[in-house]
Amino acid sequence: MPLVLVIDDSKTVLVFVEQILLDASLDVITATDGRKGLQRLRDQPVDLILTDMYMPELDGLDVVRLARRIQPSVPIIVMSSKEGRLNLFDIARALGAVSTLPKPFTREQLLAEVSAVLEAAERNSRQPANGMERNGAHVHN
């Protein structure tokens, strides 16, 4: 089962997202702020991070930037309900987020985005590092 780390300072959003992902048979760990989320990531690699953009101390941009140092290939989805998020979403993508999800979102929207990102990550993990493979062994140029 894929393991998803959800980081949001709103306990309401955290419980909502966690329950949807658990109902979809995903394993979930949660954190109520960016620092705790990054510590959980240090303790246990995950398959996906969902993080809020606006949080005290470390915001979503900080989480994306620092998570890239801890687990460089982990896909990250940034969520936000604030105005002006389009600019910040662009910055989040530039820092390494693979997707953004405007709040409020429905169960279906969340599951569609999470599924698409996990499927893309799975496809990418099956590709050879340099795009060449011969008889199951990587060919290095």
Mind explaining what this structure looks like?
By secondary structure, the protein is α/β, with parallel strands linked by helices. The protein has a single domain (3-138), classed as Response regulator (Rossmann fold). The protein has five helices and seven strands; from the N terminus they run βαβαβαβαβαββ. The strands form two sheets. It has a five-stranded parallel beta sheet with strand order 2-1-3-4-5, sandwiched between helices. A two-stranded antiparallel sheet has the order 6-7. Strand 4, helix 4 (85-95) and strand 5 (99-102) form a beta-alpha-beta unit. The radius of gyration is 16 Å and the shape is globular. The termini are far apart. 28% of the residues are buried.
Query: Helical content, roughly?
Result: 40-55%
Q: Tell me, what is the CATH class?
A: Alpha Beta
Query: What's the N-to-C terminus distance?
Result: 35 Å
- Give the CATH superfamily: Response regulator
What shape does the CA trace take? globular
The sequence of SSEs as H and E is EHEHEHEHEHEE
Classification by helices and strands: alpha/beta
Number of domains: 1
What is shown here, in short?
With 141 residues, the chain is α/β, with parallel strands linked by helices. Helices cover 45% and strands 20% of the residues. The radius of gyration is 16 Å and the shape is globular.
